[in-house]
Specification:
about 90% helix; about 0% strand
Length: about 80
């Protein structure tokens, strides 16, 4: 159950990252990478606090990040169709 809660918290954080990226669309790519690293660290620390295991935290973080980018690409492709 803790893993599921950590996954949901991270998906919320990745969604906030997506909104922040959309708001700052005219920023340089370096600033976007810095923002990504900060959100990654925040997501990792949030899951680490919930799960209490470094290896499981790394797995949950990589899984949530992968799911987020898959959903983001699917959503962008659906928007292109319409």
């Amino acid at each position: 159950m803790k893993s599921y809660i950590a996954f949901l918290v991270q998906m919320i954080l990745w969604s906030v990252f997506s909104i922040a990226e959309w708001v700052s669309e005219k920023d340089h790519i370096e600033y976007k990478w810095i923002m990504f690293v900060l959100f990654f660290y925040l997501a990792f620390m949030a899951a680490r606090k919930i799960v209490q295991s470094r290896r499981l935290t790394l797995f949950i973080t990589s899984f949530s990040l992968s799911c987020f980018f898959v959903f983001k690409m699917a959503f962008e492709n659906i928007l292109e169709i319409f």
